[in-house]
């Protein structure tokens, strides 16, 4: 008690001094807090706070990332229009019997050959038309085998030498082959199932195309012009859609589908001495891949395994390489590379939720590697990464995110 009174019985000057020191301390602490708060606000303004944009994470302090993506068009702007060739297909003229019509005109060097076998059902229709204007090259050959009911096949060849094989075993399958140009174009259609449609169109020389569809309601179109293009499309499921267009020769495309509702559009146009190469593998449900390559020596590999995946790879210029692997559900990735020698490698793994990665590289010698691994669970969150590199020579960006709810943005100019 006396001690308490003694502590409060200090000289007035001492109390005023102590009070002033206390107020000074409080003001100093308040100023520090304000400084920290303001610096925190300034720091927050520099962070990529917006992930609602269509191309990744937005940095609000610069418009360079926005401007870089403004004029980027889809990789295959008219990819789905290739499927308009399916309009050339039609139903059988008489579903009560099998119909076969062969018309061959040619001379010299083994001329034309055709073989059609239809059995097992009714309503199958086959037309083979082969025209050979000269005696050079080998023969025009067409083999059509149809087993089942209401299968339609049309083969037309007008070139020095060519090979077309159509085998349909099922019901209501429609296949068409159109080959013109010079020589040595080969087309193979093999359809097993119900309501599958396939069209192969060739021009110039030495093009090879194979379309294999097993399942139901699959659509496939392969169109190749130029020399020495090679395309293969395999769909093993239901309601799949594939379109491949390759121009100016030496391009190679491979597509494999092991699920339902998968869609793949490819367009490759060689501009330069070397051809472009694309390999797409999709397994699961609702996987979508759109790929467009212009230039020379570009190589793109897309592998999607899961439930919901999207991929868009567009490369222009020469010797660009893009490799994407998505093993998950709900993943998105866009890769657009302009210029030469750009390399982008994206790997997204996890179960459920969504990973998103968008890479835009322009001009030359950029390299970006993004690896995103998400935690398990239905509500695992989303990893989002944006890498934008424009005009910076020799740039390299690497982003590794693991867990849930990560954002990342890299802008290099």
From TrEMBL:
It comes from Halomonas qinghailakensis. One of its GO terms (biological process) is cell adhesion. InterPro entries: Curlin_rpt (IPR009742). This is Curlin associated repeat-containing protein. Residues 92-115 have a biased composition (Polar residues). Residues 1-44 form the signal peptide. It comes from the Bacteria. GO terms for cellular component: pilus.
